[in-house]
Amino acid sequence: MSTRRRALIVIDTQQEYFEGLLPIQYPARDESLARIAQAMDAADQAGIPVVIVQHEAPAEFPVFAPESSTFELHPEIAKYADNAAHRFTKSFASIFAGTGLEEWLREREIDTITLVGYMTNNCVIGSAAAAEPLGFTVEVLSDATGAIDIVNSAGSASAMQVHETIMAVLNSNWAAVATTSAWAEAVKSENALAGDNLIESAARGRDAK
């Protein structure tokens, strides 16, 4: 596998997902937080730039309001903030929409983004999909991301079901999905992660019936 020029993107690792209205349910939030920190340490050791993103909603919004305590980074991630290569806020699920991130990455000839953080079912999948037409290779760390339980008029799904389904969907087309440990090994060996593809994923799906 060829060498990639990576950036690690830490998405919305904010108190909203720990003490607010959107607590991460799967994987266990403390475990995923530890894996995010592990990825940040591995990136630092490999000289990979770390980008920290925070979601910012309008003032007095029930979640992610900039004046709220839950807008703040989790303390374990805040420790890394001063050494981040780049920090910005966003208003949409995509890390690219109106943020200037694309230009920042291209200026540094970065071709691969590794996504960690929250939520699997919103900003992670939204950012991975948004990267496709821009030509960036995407990696997603399955144990350094997390989802919430979902119930609405269209149906319901547990956080585990949401997370595992989205990881399979991402790996079939938009991203190479791996654990943090597997990614750290790929970083050490300067290799790309091996993703899958939609055609073969569909064929296996048919054969499994």
Which characteristics define this entry?
209 residues, alpha/beta, Rossmann fold, six-stranded parallel β-sheet, two-stranded antiparallel ribbon, 8 helices, 8 strands, globular
Account of the protein in words:
The protein has helices at about 15-20, 30-45, 75-80, 100-105, 120-130, 160-170, 180-190, 200-205, and strands at about 5-10, 50-55, 85-90, 110-120, 135-145, 150, 155, 175-180. The protein has 8 helices and 8 strands, in the order βααβαβαβαβββαβαα. Helix 2 (about 30-45) packs parallel to helix 7 and helix 5 runs parallel beside helix 6. The longest helix has 18 residues, at about 30-45. The chain has a single domain, classed as Rossmann fold (3-Layer(aba) Sandwich).
